[in-house]
Amino acid sequence: MVAGTDPAECARRAGQSIQVLLRHYAKFLAEARDHANPLIEKPMERWEAAEGGARG
């Protein structure tokens, strides 16, 4: 999840099912996704640009 932990382990420690955990914490998961997307996409764009330059 936000801390990079396994949702199943978070649910187990909270005494909840994964379904309950995800339903109640979906907002936090969306925020984590929104934060992670640019961190992942930026290096991928640089890698793809380098790969494209290596081919041509």
Q: Tags for this entry?
A:
single chain; 56 residues; mainly alpha; elongated
State the gist of this model:
With 56 residues, this protein is mainly alpha-helical.
Notes on the structure:
- The chain has 56 residues and is mostly helical.
- It has one domain (7-55).
- The chain has 2 helices and no strands.
- The protein has helices at 7-14, 18-55.
- Helix 1 (7-14) runs antiparallel to helix 2.
- The longest helix is centred in the middle third of the chain and has 38 residues, at 18-55.
Q: Calculate the mean pLDDT score and round it.
A: 81
Total strands: the figure is 0
- Class by SSE composition: mainly alpha
- State the distance separating the first and last CA atoms: 40 Å
- What is the approximate shape? elongated
SSE succession: HH
Assembly category: single chain
Uncertain regions: pLDDT < 50 for 5+ in a row? Answer: none
Largest sheet: none
As a percent range, the share of strand residues is under 5%
Counting H and I runs of at least 4 residues, what is the number of helices? 2
How big is the Rg?
Answer: 17 Å
* Number of structural units classed as domains: 1
Helix fraction, binned, reads over 70%
